[in-house]
# Entry
Amino acid sequence: MTAHLRTRQHRTLADVTELRRRVPDAGVGRAFGTFGELLQGVLPESGEHFMVTLPVAVWATATFAYEPGASSVDVAPAHKRKAARLAQAALRAAGRPGGGRLRIGSDLPEGKGMASSSADLVATARAVAAAVGVTFAPADIESLLRGIEPSDGVMYDEMVAFSHREVRLRERLGTVPAMTVIAYDEGGQVDTIGYNRTTTAPGAAETREYARLLDQAREAIHHADLGALGRVATRSAELNARHTSRPALPVLQRICREIDGLGVACAHSGTMLGILLPHGDPEGWAKTDAALAACAWLPGTTMLYRSLGHDDDWSLGTPHPIATSPRTTDPAIA
# Structure
């Protein structure tokens, strides 16, 4: 995260706080992001694109002040135009005229594959609902997002198998114990819609493997088997690397083996790769320090996140993440 980006995020979070101060009855909505996906692929026969989410304890927060006499939605930051469209659609779905003021703050980096856009939209839907006194179920939010862009399934407070292109739940999978994610950013930004248009379609053998991996992920989550889940994530990252350049993947796999990690997850349409560890591992900090030291030789940024687990309040939505950035090799960091 550059100093500029950090300043911008703090400013937008301050905007959220200021709107809530000035309009005490403004609606507030929150949504967590994901660390890429544990698994993403295409299923045989149907050709359905799907993902298995890896929710993390980092949130977007939206605040909406409803103005029945307004003709549009004023949004800040101004580039969050999709969120403004979503707010208007949510008002129509709630049977309310007018518009309002929408402010969004987020600790999710944009263009990295952490569902920053989806979290903005889900948080916006919840903020509008709170402002006008209605409730949107996750399926209602799916419908709202479907008209705007593909989504990562962050409207469900658990891990899910999700048809992201159709914005439709495939299967609720449950939760597992929290994991530490030692995250490495390969740099740049990825436009998810553009990526979906240009990515190479997998062959028949790969789609059959994706189906087997989905079965394995389902079983691993059901039994809270983090080792098996790490193996699924690693294999999905390897398959992704056949179609998208992931130069750091072999290095992170080596580091993962050296610290006896669970596996390596990736943002399949993003720039992030992450070594997974059980968050409750008694040797966790020693392993984390060793991994961070090894990653220091890589160009780019390394940081820590924590996945959401069994004992977390998934709707907490604290304005600052549990994620930390203890070490980086990016000289632009303030």
The longest helix spans residues 3-22. Confidence is low (pLDDT under 50) at residues 1-11, 317-334. DSSP finds nine helices and eleven strands in the chain. The radius of gyration is 19 Å.
